[in-house]
Amino acid sequence: VFPSLAQAQASVANEVYQELGxxxxxxxxxxxxxxxxxxxxxxxxxxxxxxxxxxxxGIGVIWTGPKVVSQELSAVLLExxxxxxxxxxxxxxxxxxxxxxxxxxxxxxYMGRAPGxxxxxxxxxxxxxxxxxxxxxxxxxxxxxxxxxxxxxxPPDCAGGEEVAALGDSQGAQDGSYSPQEALEVALxxxxxxxxxxxxxxxx
Length: 204
Hints:
Blueprint: H1 5-19, E1 27-28, H2 46-54, E2 60-63, H3 75-85, E3 90-93, E4 123-126, H4 136-149, H5 160-167, H6 171-174, H7 180-200
Parallel strand pairs: 1-2, 2-3, 3-4
């Protein structure tokens, strides 16, 4: 019925999207969802070109970066992806994912993402460690990175008030830049406080 896989996928996605009343959030994960899966490159991929042309503009497209698990995300790559998809991508960030090797747990700060990426994104999803408790630092430092991307204008949550104050003591926070090391130190302090609070509760 369809001349290509991309046209078949776009047709089905468009039909479901319209049947659901064109919801404000509707995400499509392409078969080629990172640069290493594209042949020969994202900008020259016939598959992605077709997806970009055929998929309705209200549908978000998921992208993981250069690889399935990307150590770095650059503005240059996102510009290339945006051009071929004809929309800003939704990053599905596998930086902390350990479902492929549960012997590993990732506890470091959110890093390797170039400053100013938010203007190139339609959204960002973080794929966490499988172990719930191990995600305190990843999610905490992601929040710090996100606030730095917004120039510190985002309102802090109940735990974030201390974080903003602590980061205000450093030059990196004052100029709106993100420091993974500073974010890690604040997250560790807040995590220890959370652990101590849980330990002091009945049954802790």
